[in-house]
Specification:
The protein is α+β, with helices and mostly antiparallel strands. A hairpin with a 7-residue loop joins strand 7 and strand 8. The relative contact order is 0.11. The chain folds into two domains: 70 residues; 113 residues, Beta Barrel (Lipocalin). It has an eight-stranded antiparallel β-barrel. It is built from one helix and eight strands; from the N terminus they run H-E-E-E-E-E-E-E-E. The radius of gyration is 41 Å and the shape is rod-shaped.
Length: 192
């Protein structure tokens, strides 16, 4: 215990100095905590914004992927029914392969007279949206003895993943005969 009053005062002054230092430290700590809290809040907000941007990018990428996935695939076997304007009906099989290549095979029961039907080369291209064009040479039978050689050009669009409909034109290779036009329906083989 202090013996003199000055010792008491010195102790009091020291206590006041200590209290002032403690108050200053507390205020500094509060300021540090407040600014650190603000920094944390800003960092959290940046993280939230970053997460939102990342999620939007992922969503857009997936949407593009889904759009591309929804675009029907031409590759495969198609049963094609043709109806020309003069009500002449023809059938063929279109085998679409990669790189825009394929084959046509006439499915005419009268072709047995000539032997087994032979496939001919065909080409196909995708257009805008769901449109597709395929073409190639064919030889239709005329009666029991003749053949009508020409080029078929199909211009259609996917109605569903397994159905293409559109217009067809047959251009004869021999003679001055006009082209024949009509409509077609192509159904992916196995889907009826």
């Amino acid at each position: 215990m202090p013996d003199t009053e000055s010792e008491w005062n010195d102790g009091k002054e020291n206590d006041e100095i200590e209290m002032t230092k403690l108050e200053g430290m507390t205020k500094d700590r509060e300021a540090v905590c407040w600014s650190f809290g603000l920094c944390r809040a800003v960092a959290a907000r940046k993280r939230i914004i970053s997460c939102r941007v990342i999620l939007m990018l992922i969503f857009q990428t997936c949407s593009i992927g889904l759009t591309q996935a929804q675009s029907p695939n031409v590759i495969g076997r198609w049963n094609v029914e043709i109806t020309f304007a003069n009500d002449d009906h023809r059938s063929l099989r279109f085998d679409a392969q990669g790189s825009g290549k394929g084959t046509f095979l006439l499915l005419d029961p009268r072709a047995r007279v000539w032997g087994a039907a032979k496939a001919s080369e065909a080409k196909w291209t995708r257009g805008e949206a769901s449109s597709v064009t395929f073409s190639g040479p064919v030889e239709f039978l005329l009666g029991n003895v003749g053949r009508d050689a020409g080029t078929l050009v199909f211009k259609g669009k996917f109605e569903t993943e397994s159905l293409i409909t559109g217009e067809v034109e047959f251009s004869p290779l021999v003679g001055d005969r006009p082209s024949k036009s009509g409509t077609f329906k192509a159904v992916r083989a196995g889907d009826g």
